[in-house]
Amino acid sequence: MAYTPSREDFDRYMVPNYAPQKTIPVRGEGSRLWDQEGREYIDFAGGIAVNSLGHCHPVLVQALKEQADKLWHLSNIYTNEPALKLAKALVERTFADKVYLCSSGGEANEAALKLARRWAHDNYGERKAKIISFRQSFHGRTLFTVSVGGQPKYSQGFGPVPGGIVHAEFNNLDSVRELIDDETCAIIVEPMQGEGGIVPATQEFLEGLRELCDRHNALLVFDEVQSGMGRPGTLFAYMRYGVTPDILTSAKSLGGGFPVGAMLTKEDIAKVLVLGTHGSTYGGNALASAVALAALETIDTPEVLEGVQRRHERFREHLERINAKYGVFREIRGMGLLIGAQMSADYEGRAREILPLAIEEGVMALIAGPDVLRLAPSLVIPEADIDEGMQRLERAIARLVDNA
C-alpha cells in the first residue's frame, strides 16, 4: 500500500524549526491549490512571494521539461547555455554589467556582502569594512546575513556573530548620518522591508542613502529578494524609485518557484571577485537557469507589469472595505503585489491567528511579524480569484472578531 504522508510525519521526521499548517497541498494550478482531501484554496501567500506566476504556469513547466531532457547540472568547472542566457537577460534589463548566480536569497546577499568588503579592502584597505544595515531588516539565514539583518531574535544563541555591522533606523537618514564614516564599505537596504512589516522606503530616504554612499566611497546594496522581479509593478523596485544601487540581489520570484538567486553589479566592482574568491556548487544550475529565464521573460512585459498595479488597487479596495466593517487594521501599505495590513490596537499581535482561520475558509495568507497580515500572490492572479479569495478572508476576519 502506498505511503501517504501526514502532518504528524512532520513532527516525527523533520527538525522542529517550522510549524506548518495542518493542511498539506498536493496540487496547484494558477492561484488555486488542492490538498490531500481534494479541498480547494485560493493562494494569496505565493510561497512567500516566490510563485510569481502562480502554480505550474505553462511557460515555466515547458522550460523545465525541455531542459530536463537536455542537461541538469555541471558545476562551475564548466559553464552552460541556460546560465549564460539568464545572465545576459538580467544584464540587458538592468543597470548591471555582471551577474553571479546561486540558489537562494541568503546566498545572493552573502555574495553581495562579501563582494562589498572585498571591493573596499582591495581599493581602500582592510579598515574599510563597516556595514550599515537597518533595524527590522531581513537578509537571509546564514550567520553573516542573519547578523546583518536587523532582528536580533534570528541571531540569538548562534554567537559569536561576525563583527563590523551596525544598524540604523529604516526611513531615518539622520540615524544613518550618525553611523556612516570613511570606514564604511556598504549600506544594505530593502527598498521595501518584507519580514519587517511590509514597509516601503521613502523616496527621500533612498536618494539620501545614494548620496551618502557616494560621499563616503561606500557601496549601496539593494536587497530585492522579496521586492523585485515584477512585484512592485516594475521589474525591480529601484526602477520605481529611480535610485540605482551598486549591487542588487534577487531570488524568490526570480525562479517562479524553482530555487535560484542572483547578485547583480557593475564591472568595476565585480572585478575584485577574482578566480577562487567565491563560489557555489549549484550556482548557475541549468534547470534553475532555464526556468528563471522563462520567468524573467514572462514577467518583464507591459501586460504583466501594468496588471500588477491594477491588482494592487483591487486588493486595497477589498481590505479597506473589510476594515470599514470590522476595524481590525490600523494601516494598509505596500507596493504592487506585496501588501501589508497592520493590525489595529485592539488586535495587536494577533495577525497569526488569522492564518488557520483563513485556511479553514479556503484561502492562504501570510504574516510579516506578529502585527502585520501579508499578501504576496501571483503577479497574474485572476481578478475573479482576488474577489473570491477576499470574500473568504473576510469570513476569517469576521471569525477573529467574534473570538475577540
Your description of this structure?
The protein is an alpha/beta fold and 404 residues long. It has 2 domains: 152 residues, Alpha-Beta Complex (Aspartate Aminotransferase, domain 1), CATH 3.90.1150.10; 229 residues, 3-Layer(aba) Sandwich (Aspartate Aminotransferase, domain 2). Helices cover 38% and strands 18% of the residues. Helix 9 links the parallel strand 10 and strand 11. The longest helix has 25 residues. The chain is globular, with a radius of gyration of 21 Å. The mean pLDDT is 97. Belongs to the class-III pyridoxal-phosphate-dependent aminotransferase family. ArgD subfamily. Pathway: Amino-acid biosynthesis; L-arginine biosynthesis; N(2)-acetyl-L-ornithine from L-glutamate: step 4/4.
Structural class: alpha/beta
**Distance N to C terminus:** 45 Å
What is the C-level CATH assignment of the largest domain?
Answer: Alpha Beta
Count of DSSP helices? 14
Spatial order of the strands in the main sheet?
4-12-11-10-7-5-6
CATH superfamily of the largest domain: Type I PLP-dependent aspartate aminotransferase-like (Major domain)
Oligomer: single chain
Q: Can you give the mean pLDDT?
A: 97
Tell the overall outline: globular
Strand count, sense and barrel status of the largest sheet are: 7 strands, mixed
Number of domains: 2
| Rg over alpha carbons | 21 Å
